[in-house]
Amino acid sequence: MGRYEEFTKFRQDMNKKILEQGTFEIKRFFGIDERAYHAGILDAKTKELMGLAASLVLRCDDCVNYHIVQALDKGATNGELFETFTVSLVVGGSIVIPHLRRAVAFLEEMGERIGASSGAGSKG
Amino acid sequence: MGRYEEFTKFRQDMNKKILEQGTFEIKRFFGIDERAYHAGILDAKTKELMGLAASLVLRCDDCVNYHIVQALDKGATNGELFETFTVSLVVGGSIVIPHLRRAVAFLEEMGERIGASSGAGSKG
Amino acid sequence: MGRYEEFTKFRQDMNKKILEQGTFEIKRFFGIDERAYHAGILDAKTKELMGLAASLVLRCDDCVNYHIVQALDKGATNGELFETFTVSLVVGGSIVIPHLRRAVAFLEEMGERIGASSGAGSKG
Amino acid sequence: MGRYEEFTKFRQDMNKKILEQGTFEIKRFFGIDERAYHAGILDAKTKELMGLAASLVLRCDDCVNYHIVQALDKGATNGELFETFTVSLVVGGSIVIPHLRRAVAFLEEMGERIGASSGAGSKG
Amino acid sequence: MGRYEEFTKFRQDMNKKILEQGTFEIKRFFGIDERAYHAGILDAKTKELMGLAASLVLRCDDCVNYHIVQALDKGATNGELFETFTVSLVVGGSIVIPHLRRAVAFLEEMGERIGASSGAGSKG
Amino acid sequence: MGRYEEFTKFRQDMNKKILEQGTFEIKRFFGIDERAYHAGILDAKTKELMGLAASLVLRCDDCVNYHIVQALDKGATNGELFETFTVSLVVGGSIVIPHLRRAVAFLEEMGERIGASSGAGSKG
């Protein structure tokens, strides 16, 4: 199981536990956290890139990875991601750089995964 | 002189002083801070909304006001701004709310200003 | 109109505007933000003091003032508030001090207000 | 040696080195950091839960784990911990979630450990 | 009474109240907060500039002003202050800029005050 | 390959990728991020210690390690580093402690490395 699969499994397992034991407010919060990125007046890709910028300046690696996956899924290109990185770096300064390095490593890993699966003729 | 004019004047006066006395790096930083929001692969409005989201979660009122002005100038609607507020509130939590209140007050002030000036047949 | 009344009025006016124009998610968030402090397994005073500590370390003056009002309303004493300040100061360090100064000034203002109104035989 | 033992050993070893080499101010700080959570007007459990909330909104995993251990030791129940998580999540927003996932994983690990040791008739 | 005098008076009055009502830990913290900037292996000016950089990236205006006063008192020049601003801006990003503007405005106010008083042949 | 070599390799590889794919603004930012620590009116060691203090209060482990390496290279002593830690701890509070523990562990690792290489008669 690769690093991405491990993270995804941990994420799912723990979210499940949180929602099982969680209070009404926690459950509600998880609901609006999902809905906030649905297409509305702004499209879903724009919202994911916005979530990515917010996550980068707040320096939350897991959040960054999550929004990269979602943004790619909504059709974001590398060019769009790097312009999002640019705004985040300028707003947040050099302390964003270690998170940017990890974001670029993760993006590359995602690219290889997508490349591999599209080579196999399917995005699945 | 209104609150907005006062803030703008202070901002311009101080930026001038900073650039006069500032180091090479400070000047360069001010340069890329401006360029980062220029239209590229992503359009300028999207970048301003992204800057607004980053500013809200980092809770910087002056930055929030600045990006609201710029986003309105690039054609952002109230609906788009409120969806940006939504992502920011969900990412950043209730500590964003006091900044959101000031953002909405500022947005209203801007709306009246634009309304007044377009009533006079001119935006310039 | 005093400083506290002004803040309260601004807060109410802006919350009203936010809820009128806000998205579904913003409204839901405001709902759970209120519910999170209701008595549950932990009593309401403990939750307010907890919200106060979180607000102090995140350095949000409006949030600090709000939780001071709520904590006093739930029966918190000055002694309990100062122990909450202690934990917050130790966790958050000297950058908490300016917020602590404003918190103590606000607490004093609230004390005089409560003193005055109870002298008049009524809290309402 | 499990993950918890490893962390505890690293923590103790490094605290020892810090106190050996540290300045007067560092030593004093470590002293008041311990004292701040002693029972006073507020009981020790409440202070630990407060420290937990502050640590969660500041997103410090080691601090979160430490306060979970201390809170459990002072008799905090899962229900009380989840209400503390609720306040923290609402105050700090979705960027708290990755830390909440790790907190719940750690809490579970602690629960199994306590379960195991109480099964053996002793808490040690 | 000018802005600086007002701030200084508020600061002194509130510190007095905090120390009167404060817990043992709060008093101790205030003690080490003062001692941390005393000359040691590093001289006092360097420590004040370090405190200034830390305050700028954490975006605490009162702390910034305090360390500017102290650094000037320990002989820091405008050139040294602007190099400190440079490191802070690069580390902390554009959200530092509003605080930098206020820092430069405050520094100018201090310069005029010092200029005026030395013109009068006295600093006291 | 040790932990330090691994981190350095990852850092270099990712910086290379960022600069290859990065926007004009990202490249410029990396340029001023390097220049900001060059000797000017303040010497390079002082600037690195300042960068270290800023990194500690912002709780960025990679940044802390980087500035420790640079500060040692510019001749900083353990005593100077611990006084920098002191200011950082007092400004940033107990949430800095986990980062301080990792900083001290890293500093020790660096000390052994330097000790080993100077035993071999060379620093290069």
Describe this entry's structure for a reader:
Chain A is mainly alpha-helical and 124 residues long. Chain A folds into 2 domains: 1-35, no CATH class; 43-119, AhpD-like (Up-down Bundle). Helices cover 77% and strands 0% of the residues of chain A. Chain A is built from 6 helices and no strands. The longest helix of chain A has 23 residues, at 97-119. Chain A is globular and about 40 Å long. The two termini of chain A are 18 Å apart. Chain B binds chain C through residues 59, 78, 82-83, 85-86, 89-90, 94-95, 97-98, 100-102, 104-105, 108, and chain C through 10-11, 14-15, 17-18, 21-23, 25-26, 29, 33, 55, 58, 60-63.
Quick recap of the structure?
6 copies of one chain form a homohexamer. Chain A has helices spanning 3-21, 24-35, 44-57, 61-73, 78-92, 97-119.
Label this structure with key terms.
homohexamer; 6 helices; AhpD-like
Label the overall shape of chain A: globular
The CATH level-2 architecture of the largest domain in chain A is identified as: Up-down Bundle
Biggest sheet layout of chain A: none
- The number of distinct β-strands of chain A equals 0
Provide the fold topology.
The structure is a homohexamer of 124-residue chains.
Chain A (H helix, E strand, L loop, with lengths): L2 H19 L2 H12 L8 H14 L3 H13 L4 H15 L4 H23 L5
